[in-house]
Amino acid sequence: MNGRNIIAKCDKCGARNRIPENRMRDRPVCGKCRAPLTTTLIYPEYPLNVNDQSFFNEVVQFPGAAAAFFWAPSCPHCVRMLPVIDELAKQYAGKIKFVKLVTEQSPATASRFDVLGVPTLILFKAGRQVNRLFGAIPKEQLEYHLHALL
Length: 150
Description:
Oligomer: single chain
Number of domains: 2
CATH topology of the largest domain: Glutaredoxin
Strand order of the largest sheet: 4-6-5-7-8
Largest sheet: 5 strands, mixed
Structural class: alpha/beta
Strand content: 25-35%
Order of helices and strands: EEEEHEHEHEEH
Helix content: 25-40%
Radius of gyration: 15 Å
């Protein structure tokens, strides 16, 4: 048990449901309408680590809002932004799905989305890129752009 939670949005009534990650296989139901919860709108309270193989399924095919953080461990600005991205993932759980991608380990995805430098945050809505932010951006400015995504 790792203590992490997933926020699942009910397809029937739209309610946000907090589910412990280790209970996802127990066929959770909505706390409001008791409908079975599906995995189509899953928003973890933490950023998912993705790579070239998983990016398409986790972001491009995701029907809701998503924020993809492209970074590199050798970049001090990126490392400084990681706690901010973690905070934002928790703050926007149930509204925006956050993913992190290490560009050095997933060059195909970085190239596909024309990521020429890190850190880069690309915002998606229903799988389509709607905004791109470069550099170490203050949390308040990130929140402004994330709010506009909703």
